[in-house]
Amino acid sequence: MEIIMSILAGTLFGTGIYNLLQKQLLRIIIGTVLISNGAHLFILTMGELKRGQPPILREGVTDYVDPLPQALILTSIVISFGVTSLLLVLAYRASKENQTDNMDKMRGNEYE
Amino acid sequence: MSNLAALPIIIPLISGILLIFLHNRMTVVRILAKVLTLGNLAVVAYIAYYIYQNGTITLEAGGWQAPYGIVLVADMLSIILVLTTNLVAVAAVFYAPSSLSNKQEHFYFYTFYFLLITGVSGAFLTGDIFNLFVFYEVMLMASYALIVLGGGRIQLRESIKYVLINLFSSVLFVTTVAFLYSVVGTVNMAQLAERVGEVEQKGILTTIAILFFFVFAIKAALFPLYYWLPNSYVAPNPVVSALFGALLTKVGIYSILRVFTLIFIYDPNLQQFFIWIAGLTMLFGVIGALSTNNIKLVIAYNIIPAVGFMILGIGLFNQTAISGTVYYLVHDMIIKAALFLLVGAVAYLAGTTDLRKIKGFMHHYPVLGWLFLLATFVLAGIPPFSGFIGKLLLLQAGLASDRVIIVIIGLITSFLILLSLMRIFIQCFWGEKDNDAYTVDKQAARKFTLPVILLLFFSVVLGIGAEFFYPIAESIGKYLMNPEIYIDSVLKE
Amino acid sequence: MIFTVFFPLIIAIVIPFLNRFKKRIHTGVFALVVPLGIFLYFIRFIGEDFQPVSQQVPWIPSLNIMLDFYLDGLSLLFVLLISGIGALVTLYSIYYLHKNEKLGHFYVYLLMFMSAMLGVVLSDNVFVLYSFWELTSISSFLLIGYWNHRERSRYGALKSLLVTVFGGLSMFAGLILLSIITETTSIQEMVLQKEMLLNNDYFPLIMTFLLLGAFTKSAQFPFHIWLPDAMEAPTPVSAYLHSATMVKAGIFLVARFSPILSGSEWFFIVVSIVGIITLCWGSYMAVRQTDLKAILAFSTISQLGMIMAMLGFGTEVAVFAAAFHILNHATFKGSLFMVAGIVDHETGSRDIRKLGGLFTFLPITATLALFGTFSMAGVPLPFLNGFYSKEMFFDSALNLTEGSLTLTTFLRNVIPYLAVFGSIFTFVYSMYLFFGTFTGKGDIGSLPKRPHEAPVGMLVPPAILVVGIILIGLFPNMVNQPFLAHAAEAISGMKLEEKIAFWHGITPPFRMSLTVVGIGTLLFVFRNKWKGIYHAIPGPLSLNRVYDWLLEKTESYSSRMTKGYMNGSISRYVALILTTILLVTFTFMGFTEGFVMDTSNLAEVSTLEISIAIVMIVAAFGTIFSNNNIAAIIILGVVGYGISTLFVIYRAPDLALTQLIVETVTVALFLLCFYHLPKLRKNVDSKRTKIINSAIAISFGTLMTMVAISSHSSKWFEPISEYFIETSEELAGGDNVVNVILVDMRGLDTLFEITVLGIAALGIYGLIRLRNKKEENE
């Protein structure tokens, strides 16, 4: 299963990157969301899947899944949420100011 | 006393939060920001002295023993960099009011500024690789907020590029941490070093090391990953540029220095690779600096060859070279801040960044001119200033390892760095008096010069007084070449 | 001794304050004290029984950088030149520079230079030597740029800085190599290890590096190009830096390291060839110039070439003659520069085509010039010092050491002819300089000023130098044993007994001198007949153009190259960055056998998970092809909620909850943005771009998958999280281990994670509000 999950996460990365390489701002942002999701899936997979109960201690249970990756993912989810929100607002403002959402038209030159 | 290690993070954090609530009283904020920055500098200076006397401080956050909880490791290297960071911060906070608009200040500039310091200091101090990621994010988020602050069309446009590239490298960072955790089962840096050493960095570990390298290299602006840097560092206000130029890339370099002298030290091909990267970074960076007539851009490009010099030391991987990198790191933080503040002042006073449109500044602003010339010589590594010592150590290490070509590249780079800045000096400061192009504002110029004088003072002291500072760099070099000292100080109490 | 080196610098710091009195007292008066004092201090060392003196003050001992000062014969010669000529030049400048000029600056630079130069010739520590060396370049730069409102002045200043700093850096590399191989930073100790150095593999490189430094500083061909442009400096500066002292720093360097370097035959070959070519080229080009100072500049180049060549010859006579000529050149060239300055000052022009017949107006100046030029030409008269050293030059050119290389034999045959050739032109330009300025019919009316004799103050310094010319000429042995012999000894490392005499009989050198005078006179008289040759050589070719071209091309190529890849396109940047990461990572993975796949430790596969995975993969691809906003949101939602489901399946309830909430808010934010931003469009990239992008994306996905599988297959250690499960309840009192980790064990992460959110919130607030205010204002 870990291999399939790795392939799934890799696919999310790949499709995310394809979107990242586009010109339209919105697609680029969709790309970043996909990549973040892929990353979280990778972290989860790296902690070994389904090797025990959820890490909530109960009597009589000795096998729990690795709790640390879960904690790391939580931190990471919150952070990427923050960044994505800022990015969305920034994208909105930047495309309004520059009157385009095409990154190729936002190249600029050095004397502005 | 181990709680000391947290102060350089906690003080700016609290300061930043405190200032949110005062943002309607700008006068108070300005004064308070200065006082708090100075206070933090004093505290850090004391901690540095304490560490100098008593050795590394490790703080196990929340009392959870290493390697299970997060540790903060304030060793000499970290604290020196935190100290330099705060020095730059002092210059920036005194420069800020004359350079920023009221609105920018009003919209939490000082909060972001303090949180940036928090993130940077945290990154220098943490002994946990996931926590390093978190501090990276604090630093980056503060930098995103600063780079967009009060921005117009251009600033927003460049900000987007900056955020996107850094976002990507952050995601890569966290993923790579997960891979590493899977292999060695820990995120504590000392234990990572221990465990990677036990298996001699075999199998997938070198690949993971390379991914880490790229994560940090994007931040550090190494060849060929620096595309995002020049324009996005030019777009924001000079204070922000100075903070970015002085601090952000250096956090990347610090991370490479730490990770590749502590954890991934078992593959000489990596070091060979670093040396190649160093050469290319120097050349392409300095070529970039010669390619433009935009004075701010010249300085932004000049970040890149300096980073090349530092990575060279890591690639050469011996004690002299590492000491050289440390010396260069401190030197470059100070001088880059000074240069960004200087060209910021020039651009402000002249009303343009195009060097072909500025001339005869020396007649109106002689102090600014002399400071710029001094900064030029400091940056180009002319003795007896700080750049010389770092360069001397790195070139010595290079020649002692029979790497003549990279040394020649280094010398050519130094030469071209000098040329790139002399173009500005000769064009903008020399020449006939130009009374029509700009209005002379000596009052403003004076406000700009004080922080720059402070920074350059330290550049000169670091050079002429090298006898006092080199032994520290030397001991850091020795310390980094013997990772077991670090491991022991964290894991075996 | 150490004090004397820093004395000028200390005074330089005070000068700006003294400059306030410049209405009453010319600032130069204060500055004059410095070189005079130093000169008087050092003159007492002259004597037959002179012994080297050394003094050491630690500077950066931990890097072996000490202020080691070492005064031997060679240093003494230079120290006296620097302070002696320095005093005369300062005196001269008091009358030359008007009080309205920025005198403060001028004397600060001048004193800075004096310190630097003293440091260069007295340092025994190579890195201190290098420090002072660069300081001479910098002060020279500032002095040339003194009148920086002139375009030529800025051009000349930059050129001199670039050429000399280039050489300085090269020398720096040579010095580092020397210090690494010999494990010392002291030149004296390096000399003791010369045998070992000669056999070191790095010896050729060291020699190349050091000689590049010396040749650039001493304006040797083809690096001489900076010197003529350096004439933009005020004339006292030209007299001081660009004839008597700084340009001789390169000579000094070669002399200083000659005990080590001259052991190699290649030293003879390279230094002699460069010296002789410089001699010939400099004198040949001097005749072509029309500006008095330009003639003198090329003449300096040529004379430096001659000294360099003699150092290259390395024989006893040659080395002695080199030391002798260093002294002689300083006397006559110093005086001639001052004369040129007087002419410029009193007539307002330095153009030799306008000048002429000035003898009647400036008789004293003309007399001084007569001695200077004739001494420079090497006219055989017993009261001109230039003749003696010229004759010794010929003598040494005829008696070169034999060597094993064919090139050496060839040079032995050619050098005497080239020496005569160069000297002929030296004779011609000397005559041209004197007669062109002071005799004949000048167009006095066209001069900007009506010429008259200069004030006494300006005449005294050149007069003193001319007295020197005559005294040395009449009593050459006066300076021989007590002074020059020590210098020559320091260069060659052996005690020399050289007697200087005017008349040796009709010896070959004397015949060479006569040939020079004979042919020289003919060429001078008929100079208009052969001047056309300059159209052929150098013609339009010029090394200056090479310099300009290089500078221009450096900028334009940099510009083109950088703009080629820094095109501002974010997708391009990302593509380049990813390609780099891919190439390097795959390479390293391949070489270190990074990829392993171990299928023994896997969770079982279930249909449910597979179905979810397939749905998510389809959705992920959907984002690429969807051109509809609502569809895009749904698809993105599918991926997000898919992950939540997976979190549930994989025993991570907290994650699932968080992911659900975050996903929902993100979708809401996206909706908002969709409302404001233009609709998704079809991807209009060219087919090629699409293929490249897909290749990058697929490779990167593959890379990450491979690293993940490989990492999963190499679980070599027990994860630390066991500890968390064991201690969570006992130490932290919580049974949800993930929560305990978040709030306690890794509480620091959480604290700063919240900080990140906080900054994001404030940043967003600023982004929105700052704009609103602006719009309200508009």
TrEMBL record, chain A:
It comes from the Bacteria. InterPro entries: CPA3_antiporter_subunitC, NUOK/Mnh_C1-like. Signal peptide: none annotated. Keywords: Cell membrane, Membrane, Transmembrane, Transmembrane helix. Pfam families: Oxidored_q2 (PF00420). GO terms for cellular component: plasma membrane. PANTHER family: ANTIPORTER SUBUNIT MNHC2-RELATED. NCBIfam families: PRK08600.1, PRK09094.1. Belongs to the CPA3 antiporters (TC 2.A.63) subunit C family. This is Na(+)/H(+) antiporter subunit C. It comes from Terrihalobacillus insolitus.
UniProtKB/TrEMBL annotation, chain B:
Keywords: Antiport, Cell membrane, Membrane, Transmembrane, Transmembrane helix, Transport. Residues 128-416 form the NADH:quinone oxidoreductase/Mrp antiporter transmembrane domain. The keyword Membrane applies. It is found in: Cell membrane; Membrane. One of its GO terms (molecular function) is antiporter activity. Its main location: membrane. Pfam families: Proton_antipo_M. One of its GO terms (biological process) is ATP synthesis coupled electron transport. It is a multi-pass membrane protein. GO terms for cellular component: plasma membrane. The chain crosses the membrane at residues 6-24, 31-52, 72-95, 107-127, 133-151, 163-184, 204-229, 241-266, 272-290, 297-317, 337-355, 367-385, 405-426, 452-473. Belongs to the CPA3 antiporters (TC 2.A.63) subunit D family. This is Na+/H+ antiporter subunit D. It comes from Terrihalobacillus insolitus. The lineage of its organism: Bacteria, Bacillati, Bacillota, Bacilli, Bacillales.
From TrEMBL, chain C:
This is Na+/H+ antiporter subunit A. Belongs to the CPA3 antiporters (TC 2.A.63) subunit A family. Residues 614-679 form the MrpA C-terminal/MbhD domain. Keywords: Antiport, Cell membrane, Hydrogen ion transport, Ion transport, Membrane, Sodium, Sodium transport, Transmembrane, Transmembrane helix, Transport. GO terms for cellular component: plasma membrane. The keyword Transport applies. It is found in: Cell membrane; Membrane. It comes from the Bacteria. It is a multi-pass membrane protein. Residues 123-410 form the NADH:quinone oxidoreductase/Mrp antiporter transmembrane domain. Residues 60-107 form the NADH-Ubiquinone oxidoreductase (complex I) chain 5 N-terminal domain. GO terms for biological process: proton transmembrane transport; sodium ion transport. GO terms for molecular function: antiporter activity. The chain crosses the membrane at residues 6-21, 28-47, 67-94, 106-122, 128-148, 160-182, 202-227, 239-260, 266-287, 294-313, 319-343, 355-379, 414-435, 456-475, 509-526, 570-591, 603-623, 630-650, 656-677, 689-709, 750-768.
